[in-house]
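Data deposition worksheet. Section B asks for the primary sequence of the deposited chain exactly as it was used as input, without tags or linkers unless they were present during the calculation. Section C holds the resulting structure in token form. Section D is free text for depositor observations; keep each observation to a single sentence. Incomplete worksheets are returned to the depositor.
Section A, Depositor: J.P.
Section B:
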Amino acid sequence: MNDIEIVLPSVPQRLIYADSRLLAVLKIAGEICEGKTSESLPVIFAKEAADTLVSPFFLECPNRLDKPVSGIQVIARDVEALSFLSEQFAQHKVQKTYWAVVEGVIEKGMGEWIELSHYLSFNPSKKRATVTDTEHRKSKKVSLEYRIIGNGNNYSYLEVKPKTGRTHQIRSQLASAGLHIKGDVKYGGRRSDTLPGIRLHCASMNIIHPETKKEVSFSAPVPFADPLWESFMDSLEMLSGR
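Section C:
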């Protein structure tokens, strides 16, 4: 696996959708959702945004995928769209599905949805979330549901649907349940991954479009389909075909 050459899709290939109000793009692990550095999405997709439509330049993310996480990310193209989309995320009205590879082989409850509910607090200085079963000062209620869709030799494959959207929520909640995401050493993973980032990918997202006020759905493949992700996809296909 260490000898596999990593060939990531180009920036134009990662532009999934574009109109006058928003972009939907594939974020690669290591990129960030804000700022003016070369690794920030507004900078990375500035040329594609300018090429697709002529309008006053504005790109800002209404939500933020963690830096080591890949997947679908929407980017607002004007202030009104940013406000409209941000409100959806704040009210937990956006439906998202994540894929995760976790350490260990879990066979019990295959295909059954399991809900996790906790209270989460985030320490900005340590950039780390803590989850507990009881409410405490400055904590926020968080919940998600997940199901095991398959197994590899040393790992299990999860489909995750967060019901709330807090910083590091999925990573910390899964870790609290003994489900450590491959490569996520911050939350108990044994070691860094052989690929950049961690094995957590935002596969799809449903939002209300700021212009049409109708629901739209975006999806994104994993940036690099190595044997582990290929095994994940095979398991998902088998489960869906049952």
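Section D:
The mean pLDDT is 92.
The chain is about 20% helix and 30% strand.
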